[in-house]
Amino acid sequence: MLFWRDLAGHERIKESLFKARQLGRISHAYLFSGPPGVGKKTAGLAWARALLCKKGDTDACGFCYDCQLFERGAHPDLKIIRSQGASIKIAQLRELQDSAALTSFGGGRQVYLIEQAEKMTNAAANCFLKILEEPPAGVVFILVADDGMAMLSTVMSRCQHYRFNPLPEDDVLQVLGRTCGGNNDQARVAARMSMGCPGRALLMLNGSDQREEMLQLLMSLTGQRRYLPVDGLGLDGREDLDGFINCTRLFFRDALVWKISGSTELLINIDYQEAIAELAGAYEEQDLVDILLTLEKSARRLAGNANQRLLIDSLVLQITGSEREV
User: Fold this and answer.
1) How many domains does the chain have?
2) pLDDT digits (tens, 9 = 90+) for 280-299
3) Residue 37 class from Cβ within 10 Å (0-12 exposed, 13-18 middle, 19+ buried)?
């Protein structure tokens, strides 16, 4: 598990929290927000590790009893809250409230990391707001969210908010080299496609067959130029749809670049030049722009828990041209 000092990129955030820990100016609540896969959960865990270590100065020492517990994933003063189904429910926050009122096991801080914090129901968010209004001593909350602005504004205002922006390609490659070894052409393609998000790049490397499947699905839609029933797409659940949107967005982006410039230098999917040329030839320039705008909206709607079936329907209509022919 990473130390805070080993995080790739995000230097301004790292330096700010290094100084905060060194000076003992620890907030009771932090909000780490940014696009999926950018590394904010990894950063949250690394910051939790630094906060739970009683020996280190600006970061965890890596050797003390707390660090050993953390490394084994067994530190009793770190608790991770995840959504139950589609949301984080008030019962989970009430349980957190009771737990935070107790003394820590190790005599130091307690840290609660809340994943996808924007998924709190209104009741849960208001319960959490009451906790933040009178925060228990020695307790630190780390909220991780794809969209911090989707959270209750009064909760957000009581957190130190750090926005994790997409990383440069070289920083993504650094993460890939450390995580799965090597810095080959496949890793470079994944880093370029990830749009600055190492988590996405890792998914692409671990599921290279999936990108091929997504491209075949996309080309089948393009080739039909007619509406295809949603059930025939083989997209099963949010993760498949998210992968389809991300891959499709990058392929259509490349098709637009090819359409305008005829150059391969700016392509992201550099290993699929023939498919991109075919895609570019199947659409007018304005159609490509319209599809990209639809994909951007779809990505935001998916992050906001939109109805997935209706989302797929809208995408298929746009890609096949059915919507434009009506």
Assistant:
1) 2
2) 998 999 999 999 998 888 88
3) buried
